[in-house]
Target: MIZ-type zinc finger transcription factor
Amino acid sequence: MTSTREVQTLAQVLNDFRLNSFHAERLTQFIGDSDIIEGHIRTGMVQLIDAAIDLEELDQGDQVKRLQKSVPDFIDLEHKYSSQKETIQKIKQKSLQSGGTKDMIKDYEDEIHKEEDEYNSLSAKQKYGENEFMSEFKQAVWNVKHPNEEMPENEEVEEEDGGDDDDVIVSSTKRSLTCPLTTTWFEDPVTSYDCKHTFSKKPIVNMIRARHGIVQCPNPGCNKTWKMGCFFQDTLMERRVGRAKMIVEEAKNREFYDVE
Ligand SMILES: [Zn+2]
Model:
């Protein structure tokens, strides 16, 4: 008798449940967790590049190719987590509207499937060829044998299945190596999870502190905000700056000896 009443009560609770503003804060925490996972994925990407550089130095070209074939897996994984995060953000917005949202699971699944369909409809070139991590991988391996040269543009990437219609072409993504705030090389570069803009850590953190914890992104035209915890250590950019500095340094040394 009592148990029936309990079941009815539980059913009622479920029926009456609305995801509302009360829950929004917990969703924020979940978004923060996704950021941490994304950070780990990017760390894995950098370690993959380090391993590829070592193997290229040892003339293990086949092993490098095998590593390169796992790059799309990382890109897919990163996309999966960032689209999950965006979905949660959308649900959070919905929960803040009056009345909240009735069926969070359905909202989530609808949105995630929409995202997945969009991503799957992209060609390999769009998904991987234009990806920053893929071009960074190729550039890093290229620089082992061509230390002072930029990789030729439109370097073709072999397809896993021996090539179908859309060959993966790597377009080298040209990102500035200087911080817009200091106008010198990036130092300790940090990138926003949200808008993907990059700044040297010290000046942006100083700005955030000076403006009581939140500041509009200093990149011209960007309407996103920066606060502590909304950015990650951009190890890919750090590597890129390190390489550029080395090239400049070597060019200087050459000039010096040429003069003598
Ligand atoms: Zn921005």
Q: What stands out?
A: Strands lie at 155-157, 168-170, 189-192, 198-200, 215-216, 225-226, 231-233. The chain has two domains: 8-173, 175-260.
